[in-house]
Each structure stands twice: as C-alpha cells, then as structure tokens.
C-alpha cells in the first residue's frame, strides 16, 4: 500500500471527526433505543444497564493504555485497528440474538472505541504542527461531539421507529468503513519519540476495581446488598483500589500516578468529572425509560422531548471555553453546577405529573443541558492548572477516564434506584452531583486551591513544588500525554 498523502491535513481531520462521531453518537442514539431493546430481548432494567455499562467500563479501563500503545507501535496502525473492531462490533450488535450476546459485542465495540478518541487527538496534533491551525482543527473535532449530542436523540428516534433498535448499530458500519478507507489513504504513521512503558498490573487492577464495583451496584437490587456475591464484589473493588495506590507509587511510569492527586485542583477536577457524568448517565437512562415506558411515547417523540437538552449541549461548550480562556474556570463551573442542580430538581415534579409536554419537563431538560454544556471546558482547565505544564496531557487523559467512570456509575446507580421502585431518587442523585460541582467549583478555583496547586509538582519524582500556570495563561502550546503538543483553551477561541 502506498504511503498516505501527508499534504492533506483537512482529510486527516475528516477521518478523525468520523471516528469521534462513531463513539459519541453511539451513546445518545442507544439511550433512545433502550425500551425497544428491553421489549424485543425480554430483559430487565439490569440487562439494559449492562448494554451501556459493559461498553463504558471497557472504555474507561483502557483509554490511557490505548493511547500509550499507539505511541509505541504506531498511531495509524492502532487507529485502524480501532475502526475495524468498532465497525465489526457494531455489525455484530445489530445481529445479537440475545442480551448476553449484545453485551459481549458491546465490549468488542468498546475495545475499538478506546483506540479512537485518544489516538485521534494525537493524529491531529501530528497533522497540524502549527498551533493556530491545530487549535482550529481541534475546535472542529470537538464540535462534532456537540453535533452528535444534538442529532443523536432525533436520529435515534427516527431509526428505531422506522427500522427497529438494530438499525442504530447499522449506522456505524458505513461510517466506520468510510473512515477506515480514508485512514489508509490519508493518515500518516507517527510514533512518540519516548513512549511510556506498559503497566499490565496497574491495568488489571483498574479493570478489577471498576468491573466489580459496577457489578455490585447493578446486581444488588436483585440479589440484595448483603448477598455473598455482592459483598464479595465490594470487597474485591476495595482491595483492587487499595492495591493499586501503593503499586503505582513504586513504578517509574505508572498507568495512573497517585501523587498527582496531591494537587487540590486536580483532585477536585477529577471528582467533578465523575459527578458530571454520573448526572449525565443517570439523566439519559432514566429519561429513556420515563418517556417511552411511563408516558408511552414513540422513540421519535422521546427524541424530540430531549431536544432542549441536546441543543444547549451543542451551543454552550464554545461559550464555556471562551469564558475559561478569558476569565478562568470559576464562573463556568458555577453555571454548570447550578444548571445540573436545577435540572435535576425540576425533573422531580415534572416526571411525577405524567405530562410529557409540560413546561416543567422542557425547563428541566434545558437547564440540565445548560449545566452540562458548561462543565467540560472548566473541568479540563482546573485539572491542568493544578499541575506543572509537563503533566498537562496526563491530567487531561485521567480527566477523560474519570468521565467514563462517572458515566458507568451513573447508569449503574440510576438503574439500581429504578429497579428498587424509587425512581424520584434518580433526580435527587443528579441534584447532589450538581451541588457537589458547585461546591468544588468554588473550592478549586479559589485562593485555597491556588495555594495548594504546587502539591502535585512532586509527582514527577523530584521537581520542586511550585504553582503551575493556569491553562488560560499558558503559551500557545502545552505538552500532550503522548509527547506531542496540544493547544490550550486560549488557542481554541
């Protein structure tokens, strides 16, 4: 095969945008299809949870590992493998004869998905060496995520209503094949000059902790919290986490360096990422069951009801990024926390009334979309500003993993609450997540966090502590986790 054309960066960007469209569109489309899957495959609420969380757990566990592997063996090679696995996994999901097979095929999808998002960012950084061009490219790439959030509910509703739930997986096949062909033609191979070493023990401990904890939360309503299996899973999760911390501290190049969490800003950003995506995972899952199960709406009507949330998730991130770049993360974090809190609180009376067209329901969706649309840019800024610039990429990678962990826990918790017959508690969990973001937003962007920001400086094994530059005050470039350069929020304005 001839060497890919290095003179066409826009085509490289198009390939990367197709990959992120695959991964991000899959989530919003599938939520609309959940009631149809439940009816066709005769599965419980826990079964629906596993169709989502089997994917999310694999993705969360392997994101960092996939990025470092691509740096070592070649980014184009890993990117193409990810496209193949995701496309084949999607085709197999559409053919799944039973729930167990669907869950297995979703895990195959996730194995491909974890190779797409982090590797695509590195490919873009390599294709656009000039900071200004790279900032615009990443802005386009990030905008595709917002488009998928806005289009997903409607597109999913149309597909499910016309052709059934299996059609949401058919959509991935032509997109994946097109991206695979374009990647072979136009994406050049690249590697990091000094890739990180593999950490198999740390990787296994992360998978064990996430898997056993999620299993316990999902299965506890049916088995009972005191059953031997659930207690054993909780003990295993605690043991894996307890073993992970001292093991990673002893490694020169750990998968996740516990010393990074000495920074108050970084720790706060990690918790806020988990809270935000607990809220999102629970919100989408609970609303899919409420709109189609309780109210009896069609998949398309359910997608239309979610439009206020989806549109604001599309429009708010650029505004949030500009505010972070000009004024810092505090105001966007306060807007995010207040919006998520208000959206969850309004959902309590809105869903209790049983009116699918009530103003309270639309207001709840709009406020939640406003809050979630503002949350990602300040979380990334807060995570990075608490550490030296040399660790900015590592911070962003852990923040991305935290988002997936939060999504998995949000689906597990909301499903457990629904299975227990206390659905209003889902909205109060979302309210609690919003209040946590509010409180942490104040703490991590205030004088106390600035005073503590240097504490993560020792994580590199000898650098003296000192305050890291906030992201909005950095120069045009900051190092990525793979050794490449990626632009700061200021560049993307």
Describe the model.
The protein has 493 residues and is mainly alpha-helical. The chain folds into 3 domains: 1-194, MFS general substrate transporter like domains (Growth Hormone, Chain: A, Up-down Bundle); 200-250; 257-493, Growth Hormone, Chain: A (Up-down Bundle). Helix content is 75%, strand content 1%. The chain contains 18 helices and 2 strands. The chain has helices at 9-41, 45-73, 75-94, 99-113, 117-127, 131-163, 167-170, 172-186, 200-223, 228-250, 264-294, 299-305, 307-327, 330-352, 359-385, 392-419, 424-444, 447-452; strands spanning 477-479, 485-487. The chain has a two-stranded antiparallel sheet with strand order 1-2. Strand 1 and strand 2 form a beta hairpin. Helix 11 (264-294) packs antiparallel against helix 15 (359-385). The model is unreliable at 454-493 (pLDDT under 50).
Would you state the CATH class of the largest domain? Mainly Alpha
Give, in order, the helices and strands: HHHHHHHHHHHHHHHHHHEE
CATH architecture of the largest domain: Up-down Bundle
Q: What is the terminal separation in angstroms? A: 39 Å
Please sum up the structure shown.
This protein is an all-alpha fold and 493 residues long.
């Amino acid at each position: 095969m001839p060497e890919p054309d290095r003179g066409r960066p826009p085509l490289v960007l198009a390939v990367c945008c197709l990959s992120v469209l695959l991964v991000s569109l899959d989530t919003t489309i599938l939520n609309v299809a959940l009631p149809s899957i439940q009816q066709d495959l005769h599965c419980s609420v826990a079964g629906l949870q596993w169709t989502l969380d089997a994917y999310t757990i694999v993705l969360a566990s392997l994101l960092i590992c996939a990025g470092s592997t691509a740096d070592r063996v070649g980014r184009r090679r890993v990117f193409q493998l990810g496209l193949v696995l995701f496309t084949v996994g999607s085709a197999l999901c559409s053919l799944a004869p039973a729930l167990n097979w669907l869950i297995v095929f979703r895990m195959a999808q996730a194995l491909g998905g974890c190779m797409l998002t982090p590797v695509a960012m590195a490919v873009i950084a390599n294709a656009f060496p000039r900071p200004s061009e790279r900032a615009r490219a990443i802005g386009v790439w990030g905008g595709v995520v917002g488009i998928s959030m806005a289009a997903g509910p409607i597109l999913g509703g149309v597909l499910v209503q016309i052709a059934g739930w299996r059609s949401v997986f058919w959509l991935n096949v032509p997109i994946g094949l097109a991206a695979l062909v374009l990647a072979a033609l136009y994406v050049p191979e690249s590697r990091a000059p000094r890739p990180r070493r593999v950490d198999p023990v740390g990787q296994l401990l992360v998978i064990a902790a996430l898997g056993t904890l999620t299993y316990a939360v999902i299965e506890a309503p049916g088995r009972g919290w005191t059953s031997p299996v659930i207690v054993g899973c909780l003990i295993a999760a605690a043991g894996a986490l307890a073993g992970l911390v001292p093991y990673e501290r002893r490694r020169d190049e750990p998968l996740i360096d516990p010393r990074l969490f000495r920074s108050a800003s970084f720790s706060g950003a990690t918790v806020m990422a988990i809270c935000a995506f607990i809220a999102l995972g629970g919100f989408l899952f609970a609303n899919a069951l409420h709109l189609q199960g309780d109210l009896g709406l069609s998949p398309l009507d359910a997608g239309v009801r979610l439009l206020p949330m989806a549109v604001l998730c599309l429009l708010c991130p650029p505004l949030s990024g500009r505010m972070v770049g000009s004024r810092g993360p505090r105001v966007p974090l306060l807007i995010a926390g207040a919006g998520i809190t208000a959206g969850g609180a309004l959902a309590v009376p809105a869903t209790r009334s049983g009116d699918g067209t009530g103003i309270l329901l639309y207001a709840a969706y709009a406020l939640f979309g406003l809050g979630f649309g503002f949350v990602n840019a300040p979380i990334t800024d807060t995570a990075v500003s608490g550490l030296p610039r040399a660790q900015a990429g590592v911070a962003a990678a852990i923040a991305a993993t935290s988002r997936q962990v939060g999504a998995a826990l949000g689906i597990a918790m909301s499903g457990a609450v629904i299975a227990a017959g206390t659905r209003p508690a889902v909205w109060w969990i979302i309210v609690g997540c919003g209040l946590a973001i509010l409180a942490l937003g104040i703490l991590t962007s205030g004088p106390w966090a600035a005073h503590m920001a240097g504490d993560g400086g020792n994580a590199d094994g000898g650098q003296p502590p000192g305050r890291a530059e906030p992201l909005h005050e950095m120069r045009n470039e900051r190092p990525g986790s793979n050794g490449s350069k990626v632009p700061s929020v200021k560049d993307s304005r």
